[in-house]
Amino acid sequence: MTGKRHEHSLRNPQIGQAYMMLVDLYEQCQAQGLSADQTYQRILNEHPWGTGTHWMHRAWNIARCEFLVDYGLSQNQSPAVRSHRPHD
Known about the structure:
- The chain is an all-alpha fold.
- The protein contains four helices and no strands.
- It has helices at 13-31, 36-45, 54-70, 79-82.
- Mean pLDDT is 78; it is low at 78-88.
């Protein structure tokens, strides 16, 4: 996405790769001037690996949950966005 390399150590390579993709997506949203609510919604809607591989989908969901907490996005969303729950 942004072409930047990030360092982050998580439980396994798939979760780490997913987390780095989320960092890139976050930076892209910041560059576009999106609000915290818009960024949160974009992250919830992103599914880079689709549903073909169970483990990759699970790794994405784990990384997404950790990322949202790390970046404080889960607490910044409006009531309308808060009612949307990610599909795990």
